[in-house]
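Recall that a protein's primary structure is simply its ordered list of amino acids. Everything else, from secondary elements to tertiary packing, is in principle encoded there. The following example makes that idea concrete.
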Amino acid sequence: MDKLVNCLYRKPEALFRLICFPWAGGGSIHYAQWGKHFDNSVEVYSLRLAGRETRSKEPFMQNIHQLIHEIVNILLPSLKEKPFAFFGHSLGSYLSFATAEYLKRNHDLEPVHMFFSGAPAPHTAAQFALKKSDLPDDEFLKWMTSIGGTPSEILTNKETLQLFVPVLKADLRLVELIRFEKPQMKFFSCSISSFNGKEDMPYDLEAWKDLTTGEFTSQSLSGGHFYLKEPDNEKFLISYITKHLETAESDYL
């Protein structure tokens, strides 16, 4: 469990677990710190993927199925133990969606709420325009700079880039392989919320509602692709998630 999950703030009496999926090239620290902002009803599990942090010597996952199997095999006992929600940003939205789809199809288990950020729904045409992993390094770095969120000390340090770029490209290859047709019937019954930054490229956030019979909401917040790193936006997201999990609580009492 500790290999995959970074949980800095253990809350054994929590009513819910919030499982957070990293963006491309991301580690587990950002979301793990969220744990201190939630009250004792929510315990945050931030996922640490192979090839980074304490797993830096492990090879990258070669496909999305390999990654999902690892996540599910390790987390399944915890997911059966108490209600859970998923949050993912950018690549993390697709990883969390693909994990939820696998859980629903194979274990008849789904989150009480899914929060998707900075990404169009997986069945929309916009998803296929995201292919960037095959770009030459110079063009790839220009794209990284254009979307923001990458510290300048990384972009200007060649040694750091040699470590960071392979991780980012490996993650992008995972999501570029996801293919999901618009479902004939809505697959999930849980609530879905989608978010993006107003200055980010336009996404069809509304298309996420095609996936569920549950409640759907969308929000656009100030900022670009990594709007969620802004303190005011982070505060909003944590408050929003807390409110919606409190609403879901009544279904489990």
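The chain has a mean pLDDT of 87. The chain is about 35% helix and 15% strand.
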